[in-house]
């Protein structure tokens, strides 16, 4: 018999877990940025590092749903540009983890995202394409930031949203590229979380299994919402959710 008491203290813990699973499912099938809204709540409920171990297997399961549905929509040239420095971001996060308190990471990430988001919004307001996206360092920089933030707190959703919005990727290609990128990085993270941070085990996997139905419900809701939103409204909606995500990270 698996003892959940080390993680689940009361009904509130289950509620937070299930909301996280619902938002993860929606995020992986189109409603970008929702996942990050649950990161502060998970950290407060389960602890910073334990919460990332609880969340990662749920993300990995939801990644499979997103990829299976949008498998032919990805723009692989952008994923290939991002992945090498994303992996470097994993190891940068492991190194920085020994130097800076976890609480400061959220503020650092939020500040970086807020700056990038401001540049993107200014570019859209001026009605011009993002000229920075043509530079050789643009994609690698986002890959590094994405790898760093996803390793520290499963918080790379806004990074990818800002990147894909800034290059004006079409709606379905946006969702498909996002799904494949995170499937790659999340499965690459699993060994590091298991063997370096020791925050994924049989107990956490059993707890995550209870959240699977909520991931499926969220995935269905995300697919329906993406179909409902026209291209322009999709970009507006994703931008608004990303802004809320950044604010949540700054204030957490």
Provide structural commentary.
The chain has 252 residues and is an all-alpha fold. The chain is 78% helix and 0% strand. The chain starts with 10 loop residues before the first helix and ends with a helix. The mean pLDDT is 84. α5 (102-125) runs antiparallel to α11 and α6 (138-153) runs antiparallel to α7. The protein has eleven helices and no strands. The protein has helices at residues 11-28, 34-46, 48-69, 76-96, 102-125, 138-153, 157-166, 171-195, 202-210, 212-228, 231-251.
For this structure, the quaternary state is: single chain
How much of the sequence is in beta strands?
Answer: under 5%
Report the count of strand segments.
0
Largest sheet: none
- N to C succession of SSEs: HHHHHHHHHHH
Radius of gyration: 17 Å
Total helices: the number is: 11
Distance between the termini: 35 Å
Helical fraction: over 70%
Helix/strand class: mainly alpha
The global form is globular
Keywords:
0% strand; 252 residues; mainly alpha; globular
Task: Give the helix/strand layout.
Elements: H1 11-28, H2 34-46, H3 48-69, H4 76-96, H5 102-125, H6 138-153, H7 157-166, H8 171-195, H9 202-210, H10 212-228, H11 231-251
Short description:
This protein is mainly alpha-helical and 252 residues long. It has helices at residues 11-28, 34-46, 48-69, 76-96, 102-125, 138-153, 157-166, 171-195, 202-210, 212-228, 231-251.
